[in-house]
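Researcher: Please predict.
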Amino acid sequence: MRPLVTLLIVALSVCRAIGGSPEEVITSYFQKVKAEGFGSIADLMHPDELRKFHEMLLPIVTESLATEEAPTFKFFAAEADPKMPAKMTDAEFMNRFMSWVSESNPALRQIINDASIETLGHVVEGDFKHVVVRMKVSANGIDIDQLSVMTVKDFKGKLLMTLSGEMKGVAESLKRQSSDK
């Protein structure tokens, strides 16, 4: 169960939402994920963060496709075009990857549907607005109440989500798993 909660937090930490105050952005994001799934989040991300995400994970996906008999990331490329991930826009790559996260962990969708959030306020640090979020989830009959911080940054008058530090950890973990095969 702990890995599912961690994936939920990571996935939620990746995103932003639609307009308004930092707190409204986070609440709107959470509602969008519940309604449309994680494969719809790229339009909620700051473009610089989308680029970082693509650059961070593309080498892992590409290596998996090139070296594994049954690649972990086979959904990224058609057999006729194994270089497809490199041709994807940053937004396409993010949505495809986050769809894989969701599809690889079916219980994650149920956890999201049952979860609730409460925004507790934000702190401004230069261009960033860090929002404190209380997330309540229930998994396998265990209730979890956890505080986390989600960060938004302005882009052309809209607040957009940034990547979390956890995402870098996920990329490193995937890289290690890939090299262990």
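Model: The longest strand covers residues 142-155.
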